[in-house]
Amino acid sequence: MRSSFLANRFLANRALDLAVVLFGVSVLTFLMIRLIPGDAVAIMLGANTEVTPDRVAALRSRIGLDQPVVLQYFSWLGGVLTGDLGVSLWTRRPVSEEITGHMWPTIQLTMLALIVGAGLSLPLGVLMARLRGKAWDTALRVGSVAGLTIPSFWLGIMMILALTTLAPDWQLLGYVPFSEDPLGNIAKLLLPAVALALPILANLSRLVRSAMLDALQQDYVRTARAKGLPERRILYRHALRNALIPFVTSAGIMTGYLLGGAIVVEQVFAIPGLGRLILGAIAERNYPLVQATILVVTFAFVLVNFVVDLLYVLIDPRVRL
Could you read off the pLDDT of 63-110 as tens digits, one per residue? Predict the structure, then answer.
């Protein structure tokens, strides 16, 4: 009974934190967009040869920019809470449709990079812990430091230059929907995913190594060895389980950074994801689209951290106490 109450209180506190963070982000995003130099109305009418004050006022009234900022915010927030993210100022299409049309490439790229980075970091970190003090451990640690210092976009550019020289017929840029060509989809996203995953792989592998070395010095590991358990079982069944909490924490946080990094890498590899959508919307001062896109990306980041909190409980129930 008490365990169930603690679990419910833990979930309620995390859900409240999520709501507070999203509210704060919505306020900051709404205000920051309006501090960007330039006027959406002036930009929209810039191509018109007859820009008059009456037309400016009419357009400003039509898109709601003639109201006080506070009223604009609460009007927008009310729409968001009811599922209405607004209408694009340029295409007049619902913002939700614009985001949906560009989100899947970004989600695919982020998930593939997370699978590559997190998936390889676990065995690599365990290997580094087993080889502690040896030449291979030193080489792997130097390589991980180098991986942390290489920007993903630069690595992507170097990959493109190298492969266009070695395989000029290979089409590296662009995007193919998974539903049309599954293999082509993976082939297009593999290089940007590797470029995006390298810093994550370097960071997480070092973290796993440190956590494993700490776990291997604990009493329960000494007891397991005294019982004659195989070293492989001690590493993966006992030590690695206790090293997973810092790993899960960092992997969850880095998922948010992967979303941000994916926006830049998408530009390098000409992937039509949220990066292209956000940059285009900022250049056009498309307030509803920029606000909604940033809010969606932030919600994804906060939701990932919420899921990470739930994983804490599964890994170590003492976390909710």
Answer: 677 778 788 888 888 888 888 887 887 777 888 888 888 888 888 888
pLDDT of the residue at 3: 56
Q: What is the DSSP string of 246-281?
A: HHHHHHHHHHHHHHHHHHHHHHHTT--SHHHHHHHH
Residue 80's alpha-carbon distances to 83, 289, 320, in angstroms, are 5, 12, 32
SS3 209: helix
What type of residue is 37?
P
Write down the CATH number for the domain with range 103-276+302-320.
1.10.3720.10
How is the chain split into domains, by residue range?
103-276+302-320
How do residues 296-313 score in pLDDT, each as one tens digit? Answer: 888 887 787 777 777 766
Cα dist from 88 to 137, 255, 282, 292, 311, whole Å: 53, 28, 12, 10, 38
3-state helix, strand, coil in the chain (%, to 5): 80, 0, 20
